[in-house]
Amino acid sequence: MKGFFCRSMPLAWKPPGALAFAGHMTLQEQYDDAMFDFSRGDFDGAIAKLKAVLAADSVHFDAQLALGMAYYRKGDYAAAIAEGHKAEQLRPREQLVHTNLSLFYMKAGDKPKAEHHGLQAKIESWREDANKTNEPEVKAGDDAELQIARPKPPPIKFPSQPWKKKKLDG
Q1: pLDDT of residue 143
Q2: pLDDT in tens, 10-49
Q3: 160 Cβ contact partners less than 8 Å away, ≥ 6 residues apart
Q4: Number of C-beta neighbours around residue 42 at 10 A
Q5: Is 11 helix (H, G, I), strand (E, B) or coil?
Q6: 14-132 adopts what CATH topology?
């Protein structure tokens, strides 16, 4: 492909991510393009594009989280920790934030802080599980009035009791 024309003005062919900074892509497309670079191992390209996403939307949580991971994959643990704490400020109770920070601190050699964030990740996991069990099981399409008409679940059967002797007929 040599190039394409727009209003009789020749433009050189550019890779898909090259237009991201020209303002031709939505924020989500820019983020997706950065993640594509990340998946190919182009961490410097991903970092630049993620920073551009964060410049446009400073509270874009996924971009902030990915930026920390890109620095980690690049081997810059201090920058990864700094970006991880920025993600923590956006969502302090996010399990993945603490999991990443635990990983970053462990690679940086700070085992106490790694263990602290590992524990925080576990606590958030438990909190999430507890919230799931407390939610009612009414689905969006279910009618609340019809919930009453549903049969009750059968009683719980206890396991056999081998210590009780059965009477034998005979």
Answers
A1: 61
A2: 444 445 545 444 457 899 999 999 999 999 999 999 999 9
A3: none
A4: 16
A5: strand
A6: 1.25.40
Residue spans of the chain under pLDDT 70:
1-23, 134-150, 158-170
Cα separation, 74 vs 162, whole angstroms: 62
Closest alpha carbon to 72 in 95, 50, 90, 94: 50
Question: How many CB atoms within 10 Å of residue 164?
Answer: 6
Tell me the one-letter amino acid at 56. Answer: A
- Tokens representing residue 20 in the block: 């991201």
Domains of the chain, by residue range, sit at: 14-132
Give the pLDDT score at 131.
81
Q: For residues 38 and 22, what is the distance between their CA atoms, to the nearest angstrom?
A: 20
